[in-house]
Design a protein that fits this description.
The chain is of the alpha+beta class. 37% of the residues lie in helices and 27% in strands.
Length: 295
């Protein structure tokens, strides 16, 4: 009865009241007091009293929680970078797909080293869909050919078209490793890649030979289902051979599924990822940052 009178009194005037806490401790709180008839005392008044008296603290904690949530949202919108994993693995941060630091790319004559990774996203309506993760592997012995750009920062290299052209054209072995982040049928995969390759070949004046090489590359994918975690290697061996290898669910191809001779196709294919308008800006930025660390 006494606890209820104290509780309902909190609704009118100000007074100092002692409310019992656990372990026989008492806490001084600001509450309101006024006479209340016994017949009007609500049965759950103690809970209302605690709520009213703790309201300032609740508001304070709410403001802190809101600030933390806002900070988390702000951080999630910041640009992401490739995260180095444990041991010999590097993780592409958007897809979580792992890349070994080195590989004997299918068709390559030597071990190639990872220069950077990124994600290929496709915008569908208002959503960005993660299609695959990609990594570029290069021959570390040939990085000395890029010495003229070594003093530049990665932000400069990303914008430097002469560097991109040199990275594509310098004659050393390199390989693109693509790992699917979702199930995609081969025709859809090729449709997206082909639509970026075709205008590049046309602009380069590749002519009928370039068109034939493009069709040959498309034939490798068109009738093949590409499941989640399927691995595709596109390896450039000198002077002008493209080796295409496909392995299911994270496997490592042991031999090329097809090989195509076309210098024009190769330079335009690597331009898709390293050139002026790359389909994976995150991959190009990661490669610009890591290319001189592979030796």
């Amino acid at each position: 009865m006494a606890a209820s009178r104290v509780t309902m009194a909190c609704l009118t005037s100000i007074n100092v009241v002692k409310v019992a806490e656990s372990h026989n401790a008492s806490t001084t709180r600001l509450c309101s007091t006024a006479p209340v008839l016994p017949s009007m005392q609500p049965r759950r008044a103690p809970y209302l009293s605690r709520f009213l008296c703790d309201l300032p603290n609740a508001q304070k904690h709410s403001r802190v929680a809101f600030a933390r949530a806002s900070s988390s949202r702000s951080m999630s919108t910041m640009p992401t970078r490739a995260t180095v994993g444990v041991g010999d693995e590097v993780v592409e941060p958007v897809t979580g797909i792992q890349f070994s630091r080195s590989t004997n790319g299918s068709g390559a004559s030597r071990e190639l080293v990872l220069a950077g990774v990124g994600v290929r996203e496709k915008k569908i309506a208002f959503l960005k869909v993660k299609v695959y993760a990609i990594g570029l592997y290069v021959d570390p012995a040939a990085i000395s050919s890029l010495e003229a750009w070594k003093s530049k920062g990665s932000s400069e290299l990303v914008k430097d078209e002469s560097f991109s052209k040199a990275l594509i054209d310098v004659p050393f072995e390199k390989s693109l490793r693509i790992v699917l982040a979702r199930d995609v049928d081969g025709a859809t995969f090729w449709g997206a890649l082909g639509e970026t390759l075709a205008p590049r070949l046309k602009a380069a004046g590749a002519g009928a030979a370039g068109e034939q090489a493009l069709n040959s590359l498309g034939d490798v994918f068109k009738n093949r289902p590409l499941k989640d975690k399927t691995v595709v290697f596109l390896t450039w061996t000198q002077p002008s051979t493209l080796h295409i290898s496909i392995a299911p669910e994270g496997g490592s191809p042991s031999a090329p599924d097809a090989s195509i001779e076309s210098a024009a196709l190769l330079s335009r294919l690597f331009d898709v990822y390293l050139g002026k308008d790359p389909v994976s800006p995150s991959a190009k930025a990661s490669i610009a940052k890591g290319i001189f660390s592979v030796v």
